[in-house]
Amino acid sequence: MNTNEPIYSMPKMIGKDAHVLILGSMPGAQSLAKQQYYANSRNQFWRIMYALFNEEYSNPSYAEKTEFVKKHQIALWDSIHYCKRRGSLDSAIKDEEPNDIPSLLREHPDIRVIAFNGSKSFAVFKKHFKSGIPSRIDLIKMPSTSPTPSRYPKTMDEKIEDWSKIKNYL
What number is the average pLDDT over the span 119-142? Predict the structure, then answer.
C-alpha cells in the first residue's frame, strides 16, 4: 500500500435504533479489501461481541455478524475518514481526516455511548472533536481487539470484561 495514495474508511454500519457506537481508527488492509469490518481472522472483535451476549461464535457469515450487532443496537464506524498508511498498523497512519461523527450523532439521537476500539481511535477523536459532541454521550476507551500485540496485553477474558461496559447502555 503506497503512502502517497489516500485510503478511505468503509461506510458506517448502523441500525435505526443504535445505542452504542463503536469507533475503530481505520480498517486494516484485509478489512478494506473485503469491505468487512474486522475481517482479519485474528482480530478478536467478533468473538468478543458474541461472548458479551453469551452467543456461540461458530464462524458466522459477515451478513450474520452485521445483523448480530444491529440486533443488539450496536453501530460500527471509524474515527478516520481517510489517511495515508503503509500496511495496517495504526502507528503508520499519517495525514488523517476524521469522519463526520457529530452529524451521525445528530442523525441517531438514541446513541448513548461511543466506545473506542483502541488508543488511536480515541486520540483521533479527541484531536478533531474537542466540542460539538452532545453531553448525553459517554466516551469510553476500550482495549484494542487488533491482532497486533499492544504494550499492555490483556487476556481474552479481560478484554471481554472490559468490553462488557457497553452493555450498560443497551
Answer: 92
> Whole-angstrom Cα distance, residue 103 to residue 91?
27
Which residue carries 452493555 as its cell?
167
The answer to whether position 1 is within a domain reads no
What stretches of 36-163 show up as alpha helix (H) in DSSP?
45-52, 62-71, 101-107, 119-128, 156-163
H or E element, residue 142: strand 138-142
In the chain, the percentage of residues whose pLDDT exceeds 90 is 80
Domain that residue 57 falls in? 7-169
Task: Say if 2 falls within a structural domain.
Answer: no
Max CA separation in the chain (angstroms):
44
Q: Measuring CA to CA, which residue among 1, 106, 88 is closest to residue 40?
A: 88
The continuous run of DSSP H or E covering 81 comes out as strand 80-84
The model carries a pTM of 0.93
Give me the number of domains the chain comprises: 1
Residues carrying an active site annotation: 43
The pLDDT value recorded for residue 87 is 82
